[in-house]
Design goal:
It holds the Pfam family FBD. By secondary structure, the protein is α/β, with parallel strands linked by helices. The chain is about 30% helix and about 15% strand. It has one domain. It starts with about 20 loop residues before the first strand and ends in a 12-residue tail after the last helix.
């Protein structure tokens, strides 16, 4: 299913899709207006248990969202009480990405596992560690979830994407490489 949600989309019974359990989103965290719609999008899917986020590469940065923004956006029910698995694809270590992950850790009560899949831009283990170390020291809402940080799967670091592959349930996930 492909939905086009825009800034200003209001959550109502008409825009909610309670049957969705696995959701994949591509978000350009460096583009402020793109990232600002995430709370409303997630509110449209109240029963999501597995969330795949692909961090899209912005054409140009138009502002960053900090942790304060996420707290001010209010409670997002699926993060708070439903999502057990978060897979973050193409993590670049940007401030807006880290703020989202920090909010997620602080809010998610039933989170069991987080898989952070790195973008090809990381050059050393030290760089990766410096970016994700702050996540380990965060106050967490759920009992300590398993956090895995993995590299990219193909030499170019890209992810093969298509709607046909995204709806193929035998594959590992919507942004997987095969």
């Amino acid at each position: 299913m492909r939905l086009r949600l825009q800034a200003g989309t209001r959550v109502s019974p008409r825009t909610m899709v309670p049957s969705v359990r696995i959701l994949a989103l591509e978000v350009r965290f460096g583009v402020r207006n793109d990232a600002k719609i995430i709370p409303n999008v997630l509110r449209c899917f109240p029963n999501v248990e597995t969330l795949h986020i692909k961090s899209g590469k912005p054409d140009q940065s138009t502002g960053k969202l900090n942790l304060k923004f996420w707290h001010e956006s209010g409670t997002i029910e699926c993060i708070r009480s439903r999502i057990k698995l978060l897979v973050f694809h193409d993590f670049r270590g940007g401030r807006s990405e880290l703020a989202f992950l920090k909010y997620f850790f602080e809010s998610a009560l039933v989170l069991k596992e987080v898989s952070i899949r790195l973008s090809a831009g990381f050059t050393s283990a030290e760089e990766v560690h410096s970016k994700v170390a702050s996540l380990g020291s965060r106050k967490r809402a759920s009992e300590t979830p398993i956090v895995r940080v993995t590299g990219w799967s193909d030499p170019q670091g890209g992810f093969i994407q298509s709607f046909k592959r995204g709806s193929e349930f035998s594959l590992q996930g919507p942004f997987a490489n095969y």
